[in-house]
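Q: What residues go here?
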């Protein structure tokens, strides 16, 4: 079995995109599978947002604008 250092050395040789994919997969592998309640809560939240949008109670914004606002709130 390879050591962490050997794996890290191999990972450094990968193209950037593959390194990021590997890092993401490692992080996700340790997360617990969400419960059915979590899926149902997200489904309800999404449906409510769509309904508000359809009724004209909210508006769409470009992702770049949302991310910029978030960056400002986080002090970036």
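A:
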């Amino acid at each position: 079995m390879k050591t962490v250092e050997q794996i890290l050395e191999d990972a450094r040789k990968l193209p950037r995109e593959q390194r990021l994919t590997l890092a993401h997969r490692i992080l996700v592998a340790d997360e617990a599978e969400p419960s059915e309640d979590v899926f149902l809560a997200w489904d309800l939240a999404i449906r409510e947002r769509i309904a508000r949008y359809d009724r004209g109670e909210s508006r769409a914004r470009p992702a770049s604008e949302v991310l910029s606002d978030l960056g400002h709130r986080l002090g970036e």
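A: Context that may help when evaluating the design: Residues 34-76 form one domain. Residues 9 and 47 are 45 Å apart (CA to CA).
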